[in-house]
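Late entry, written up from scratch paper. The run itself happened at the end of the previous shift, but nothing got recorded in the book at the time, so transcribing now.
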Amino acid sequence: MSSTLFRTKKVEQSILDTEEPEHALKKSLSALDLTVFGVGVIIGTGIFVLTGTVAKDNAGPATALAFVAAGIACALAALCYAEFASTVPVAGSAYTFSYASLGELPAWIIGWDLVLEFALGTAVVAVGWSGYIQSLMENAGWTMPAGLGSREGADAFGFDILAAALVLVLTGILVLGMKLSARITSLVVAIKVTVVLVVIIAGAFLIKGDNYDPFIPKEQPVEAGASLDSPLIQLMFGWAPSNFGVMGIFTAASVVFFAFIGFDVVATAAEETKNPQRDMPRGILGSLLICTTLYVLVSIVVTGMQHYSELSVDAPLADAFKATGHPWFAGFISFGAAVGLTTVCMILLLGQTRVFFAMSRDGLLPRFFSHVHPRFKTPHRPTILLGVIIAILAGFTPLTELAALVNIGTLFAFVVVAIGVIILRKSRPDLPRSFRTPWVPVIPILSVCASLWLMINLPAETWVRFAIWMAAGFLVYFLYGRTHSRLARREAGEEQPSMGGGTP
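Output as recorded:
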């Protein structure tokens, strides 16, 4: 059985499967489209919220260094993603990469993980977007009817109609085609980046040098019961994260890392890229570089405008402008955050549908979902199914406590992809690689270590929920996926390998 669980799918066969007419996605994306997608999904509420949280609690003005550290950790993973996405330009991202290097069971595990990660991520972002929109409506004197707005507590009953409506509208846009999605994303990202740049430029004139003293505050122990007091770290190492000091910067990096989540979604669009060998590395690395630069500049500005000890946790940028006598920027920043979350939601939904589509095309999920729309050439069936499910999830379910699953799922994918790069270099040294991760195996090993370090900073409860979801995934695989896999059917002679250009 072990040989069947770890059977790999050749890269050449994965590419041939994408050429079957009824399963072929339309290639319409450029390097610019991919970069815009990356910036669109990375920049969300993190840049408007996390800066104040970690500056006040962990790093002070050195928050800029925390963003640099988190950006380096992401860059290590991004280099691994860039090699895989350009070498195996097939929908599915880490799932497809794992199938080519680690085997079917690891591929299923990571695919199952990504489906949860993107689903919860989309729902959480939709609820956050709804909150911003309702805030803007209230400022204009409009109030949502009782029971149709966001829920204020875990026990509050109601349906967040705005969150659900956003998911359904974005589902329709994704069904209509990737190029339309790219155009809408480009427009929204332009608005979002403009808002961020205006905040940086305007805030730069309000900086006071005294607020940077001290740049790295003196180290303090974390108070008992603090939110960053990870039981897992204490169990493994016997100590808890630090507030401030040099170690406080690294503790902050584990928090602000989550503001970078999303660049890996770019890899899910590899199959729909005109020249993936050239454009995928540019899109992945370019979007990460742009966002890291913006994050560092924002953190420098906000900690210079107001002393880190006085920053608010909920809306540090907006409140910093209020404190300096410029309240107009508060509404402007809320508008930018609301606009920004639109693209985050759409691209997360895009990523999930492509992973689901790839798993379906491989037979690990019902093949019914692997057929593309005859006109739009998009995976309309999984897009509609998942869009409706996530809309209901966003409308009914309080997701605050489950949001951390998005983080652990992403880091788990980073680990798998980095290991996959090392294995595929050994097993397929002959494979053409237009982009090669430098210093293999050093870079992938460093990526694994950085991801694991950030994972152990997460609360123990997150690990328990993650383990439960993975256990459910094993059950589904052994009851359905293992016997319905196209690779298994081909090995048994029940299906001929695809030759491209027609139905096998």
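Residues 76 and 447 are 5 Å apart (CA to CA).
(Scratch paper discarded after transcription.)
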